[in-house]
Structure formats: structure tokens, C-alpha cells
Design goal:
single chain; mainly alpha; two-stranded antiparallel sheet; 18 helices; 45% helix; globular
Length: 501
């Protein structure tokens, strides 16, 4: 109950701190100076959860080819067909929530506490917020950001500068805490004040960012190896487990999309094909079988309007009943109360497995981490025990794999489905796995033998200027309108700074 009340308080701040309001001491909207530090931290955490587990979760789900647009509705056709531009304002809400919400509150909080534990948690949340911004756009305001009216038009920094900057910040905060460990004084909805967990979370953030950086900056290799050898990471999942089916207290993605009363999300062909290929029981976690066939069927990317002409669908038509809808309530009925996952144990273990394979020549350790990742994901989905048979399957068994690193990457893509779609999109771009199929959707629909299950498929109707798949999010239109220092427009084909493959 305490956590739910804190969530409702934090949610109310979402409507206040993102803009300037003359609140005239209305007790329903307290001024920043009257809000104590212990009550502000839940607002920070909720802003970030709302961004990564709702807005970004949604569009990244399409870019990862987990989701496609339901045939008889049209809200996200532009995501499927990659016709978005700056004027689409896809990231504007997330950008505002991070800068005017989470990051502004962190700046305020840092003036209200000198407690080393509080400051470490604040640095961690600040690091994650900036990581999300860079992983989407590459550039963002950093060195001149968050100065309020003193600098309302901050410069934009390149992504490498931002990554290096926030890593230095969080590592300094970690050193300060370790030199003088204290108990948290702010209310914490993620780890309930457990500082061992916060230290482990900070180390996991560092590992994730250094792994992301490696191809562009090989100098971080020793830092990766040191972190994995130290093995001081959080246990369980880093999440906000505060939601219920009460109005205004639903899990972010569920609350935004199921509550609309109109379906938009159906399965994309690549994720369905791969889960069928690997006999993955997690296919039932958030997908329904089709009404017409009683089987799982994914829609070819960017081809909703063409499926009928390809001879697919009942009675030579293509309707909602022909494709697997996303089950917002989930197979176990926990959609409304589902946690907001900010960093899953599965994602962490896959990074450890990759590091052990690439940098440490430790295949046995990589296998243990790979299997731990999948086991953790099954547990998080309420499917514990089913991973035993799954891991023995021919197409996921470690010992059967000729290319074990590729297996790690493919299973990470499958495992992050509907858990952390934004992280999946980043890892997909970093590793170029799943690969992009050489065949187009129409040819695959006529002859599935030319397709490797799980390969991504270029949208059949593709608005991307260079073809292929989207490599970045566009800058916010709101930033373009208000800040002349916003960089010149980039194309969707231009990768973010760490994506050098």
C-alpha cells in the first residue's frame, strides 16, 4: 500500500514538473522548495519508468520487429513502414519527461542531500536517463543542460562525450559512497534502500555502457573484464513493482495501450518464426493464437496493406483474426500489475556471457551465464521450470551451437521481448543480430525455405531514405522549435555513435 501511494504521488508530479505553472501554493501541487527529498525520488524513478517502459517500449517494439500494426487499425503504420520524421514527434514526450521531469528533479534533489547513498542512487538514475537519450539520438544537451533560465538554449553534445561524462559522474559517486557508506534517506521504489543492490546496479550500468562503447572505443576492454571478474552486480531484476489494476496505477505500457480500448499491436513475423523454430513457450507470454487458424501467425514488416494481395488471410482477405494479437493482459493475467523493468537480470547475464566469450576465453563461464539469463527470464515471466526443456532443445542448447556468440545474441533478442524493448533495439543495432534477411517479405511469404527464422525483414513499404532498418530516433520537434543549438537534421539511416559495425 505504501508503494502504491508513493506511485500515485509520483504520477501526480508528472503533470506538474514538466512545465512551468503558476500554482499559487495550491496544496495539490506543492512547490519544489516544499517537497522533501525523500518524496521526490519516487517521482524521478516513475518518470524514467514511464519513458523506458511506455513511450520507448512501444516504438522500440516495432523497430525490433516484435510488433506490427493490427490490420484493421492504423495508429502506428508509420513505425512499421519507417515513415517517421522529426515532425512525427515520436520522442518528444520522452525527451520532455526526462529533461523537465527526471533530470530536473535530480538536480533539485542534489541540492537537498549530501548523503552518499542518496547521491549514488541519483547518479545512477541520471546515468540511465542520459544513456537512453544517447542510445536514441546519439547527441543531446549535457554539459550545458539543466541550467534553467540561466541557459535556456544549451549546446548539444556528441554521444561519446555524454557517455564518458555520466560514467565519470557515477564512478565518482560510487567511490564517495564506498569511502563513506551511509543509509539512504530518500524513498526508493526500486531496491527499497538496499545499498548492496544499488552498488550492483551501478556496476551493471557501467558494464552495459562499456559493452556498448567497445566497438567504437576498444580502450574500455579492461574495464569490462574487471567488472565481470569482480562480479558485484544486483540480484533479481531492477524494476518498479508498484502497479495494480486500479485506475491511474496500471503498468505503463498496459495503462497506455490496453486502456485505449482499441488494439494496435500484433506479432511481427520474425519473432514468431524464431520462437516457433526454437519451440519457445514464451511465445504464449504476450501473443494470442489467431482466431481463424488457432495458430501463431506474425505479420510481415511494413506489409499490412499487401498481405491480402499475397494470398494470405482467410477468404483471400487480411483481417485482425488472421494474425496473432498482442495480449496486453499477458497469458497469466498480470498485464495491469506487471513491473516496469529498468534492467533485467537476463540482460545482465547475457552481457556477462558475451564478455566471457569475447574477452575472457571462458566458454564454461559463458555457458553458465547464458543459461542463467534464460532461467531468470522464465522466472520473471511467471514461467519458472519451463526453461529446463527449452534449454535442452536442439536450437538453443549451448553445446549444439556452432556459433555460440550468435546464439547469445539471438536469445537476448528473444528474451528481451516484452521485457525491455528499448534495450533490445540498442543491442540489435550494436551487434547486427538478428541479421537482415536478403529476401523480402513477399518472397518469404511464397517460399519460407529461403528465410532463416528470426532474421529481420526490411519493411515491404519502407520510407527510410537509404532502405534497410532505422538506426536512430530523430531529434524532438520541440527542441528544434525552441533551441537553435539543436543539431542539423539527421537521417534515420545514420547510426548513433557507438554503432560502428
Amino acid at each position: 500500500m505504501k508503494k502504491n501511494l508513493l506511485y500515485l504521488f509520483a504520477a501526480s508530479l508528472l503533470t506538474v514538473t514538466a512545465c512551468d505553472l503558476d500554482i499559487n501554493d495550491d496544496p495539490s501541487y506543492p512547490e519544489s522548495g516544499t517537497i522533501t527529498a525523500d518524496l521526490m525520488f519516487p517521482s524521478v524513478q516513475n518518470y524514467i519508468a514511464t519513458v523506458s517502459c511506455d513511450n520507448m517500449f512501444n516504438y522500440a517494439g516495432f523497430f525490433c520487429q516484435y510488433f506490427e500494426q493490427m490490420p484493421e487499425t492504423n495508429q502506428f503504420n508509420d513505425y512499421c513502414e519507417q515513415t517517421i520524421t522529426e515532425s512525427s514527434q515520436v520522442i518528444d514526450r520522452a525527451y520532455s519527461a526526462l529533461y523537465a521531469g527526471a533530470l530536473t528533479d535530480i538536480e533539485d534533489l542534489r541540492t537537498k542531500t549530501d548523503n552518499t547513498a542518496d547521491l549514488l542512487a541519483l547518479a545512477a538514475m541520471r546515468t540511465f536517463a542520459f544513456q537512453l537519450l544517447v542510445d536514441n539520438m546519439s547527441e543531446c544537451p549535457y554539459t550545458e543542460a539543466l541550467q534553467g533560465s540561466a541557459n535556456a538554449q544549451p549546446a548539444w553534445d556528441d554521444g561519446q562525450t555524454v557517455y564518458n561524462g555520466v560514467l565519470a559522474e557515477v564512478e565518482a559517486a560510487l567511490a564517495a559512497y564506498e569511502a563513506n557508506p551511509e543509509l539512504m534517506t530518500v524513498t526508493d521504489m526500486m531496491f527499497d534502500g538496499d545499498m548492496d543492490q544499488w552498488v550492483g546496479y551501478v556496476n551493471a550500468l557501467r558494464l552495459r555502457m562499456y559493452m556498448r562503447m567497445y566497438d567504437a572505443d576498444n580502450s574500455v576492454r579492461d574495464k569490462i573484464v574487471a567488472l565481470v571478474n569482480e562480479n558485484n552486480f544486483f540480484t533479481g531484476d531492477a524494476m518498479l513493482d508498484i502497479y495494480s489494476d486500479a485506475t491511474d496505477n496500471r503498468s505503463p505500457f498496459y495503462g497506455s495501450y490496453y486502456a485505449l480500448g482499441t488494439g494496435n499491436h500484433v506479432a511481427a513475423y520474425p519473432i514468431i518464426s524464431y520462437m516457433q523454430f526454437t519451440n519457445d513457450p514464451r511465445i504464449a507470454y504476450a501473443f494470442n493464437v489467431t482466431v481463424n487458424s488457432g495458430e501463431y501467425m506474425g505479420q510481415f514488416p511494413g506489409a499490412k496493406a499487401d498481405m491480402k494481395t499475397w494470398g494470405l488471410g482467410a477468404n483471400d482477405d487480411w483481417k485482425n483474426n488472421d494474425v496473432s494479437a498482442v495480449n496486453y493482459s499477458l497469458y497469466n493475467g498480470t498485464g495491469a500489475s506487471r513491473p516496469a523493468y529498468l534492467y533485467t537480470q537476463a540482460a545482465l547475464q547475457f552481457l556477462i556471457a558475451e564478455a566471457k566469450m569475447r574477452f575472457m576465453n571462458d566458454e564454461a563461464g559463458a555457458k553458465a551465464a547464458y543459461e542463467a539469463a534464460i532461467t531468470a527470464d522464465f522466472e520473471a515471466r511467471g514461467m519458472a521450470g519451463q526453461e529446463v526443456d527449452f534449454l535442452s532443445g536442439a536450437n538453443v542448447n549451448w553445446d549444439n551451437a556452432a556459433d555460440k556468440l550468435h546464439l547469445i545474441y539471438m536469445q537476448r533478442w528473444a528474451t528481451l521481448f516484452y521485457m525491455d524493448n528499448m534495450e533490445a533495439w540498442s543491442e540489435m543495432r550494436r551487434t547486427d543480430v538478428p541479421e537482415l534477411s536478403a529476401a523480402n517479405g513477399y518472397d518469404i511469404s511464397q517460399n519460407t525455405s529461403i528465410y532463416t527464422p528470426g532474421d529481420l525483414i526490411e519493411p515491404y513499404r519502407n520510407g527510410l531514405e537509404a532502405g534497410g532498418l532505422l538506426k536512430r530516433m530523430f531529434y524532438p520537434q520541440s527542441a528544434r522549435n525552441l533551441n537553435p543549438n539543436t543539431p542539423p537534421m539527421k537521417t534515420g539511416s545514420e547510426p548513433v555513435w557507438w554503432d560502428v559495425n
